[in-house]
Amino acid sequence: MANGGYSEKADLSHVEQDVDVDEPERGRQQSVSLNKNISARIQNPLAGIPRATLFHNVEEFCRDVDMTDLIPLVQKGALVAQNPPAFEQIAELEDPEREALRNEVLHKWRQPRALYTTVILCSVGAAVQGWDQTGSNGANLSWPVAFGVPDAGEGATATNGWIVGVVNAGPYIASAFLGCWLSDPLNNYFGRRGTIFVSAIFCLIPVIGSAVSQNWQQLFVTRLLLGIGMGCKASVIPIYAAENCPASIRGGLVMSWQMWTAF
Length: 263
Description:
12 helices
């Protein structure tokens, strides 16, 4: 329907093109005009792009990322992303591909087994997060006395209370100041799965070190190392799970991180 002289399609996007240039050059010059987005909706960046220009942009992208063998598949994906409700009318799609797209709407939980396996493994990472937290807190019942820094009862001092508090906060200090920040360069160099692997190492070895610590200083260092893994893991695994899940069920599956951490 028209609104203020613009159609709904014009509200969503407007492609500016130079009629004096060829099609590939036009693909590089196209831009989305935010001035005509009077309805303040999130725009589909592919809406309104001519098919030839869209295919040219896909080819350039695939060449840039060394995916030339997948150009036909990525072109199909671009056509679907350009107008998702009209996928039935896209001639380039094959019947199994249309069936898969129908299932995303009619049977949204009918997903590949690999997807659910990925989410379950990510949930195990969340469970480890919960174990790390409860294990560290539960150890506070015994280690202050065992290491000669009781914070309650006979021999308790104000200094001991600070020591116990700092050791107990060690994982969260390292998580906030190191682990979460390190996730960005680690993702850049190793990718999501490589970063998760690195964080798993920091969540395994420091736990063993905590079990064999002989004084509170050693325990504090092991907890700092544990915090690096916890922070890195907590800022990567939910994102990795979300990137693997379709939008229609993403919220339900990614919620498993918090559920497994808590329960």
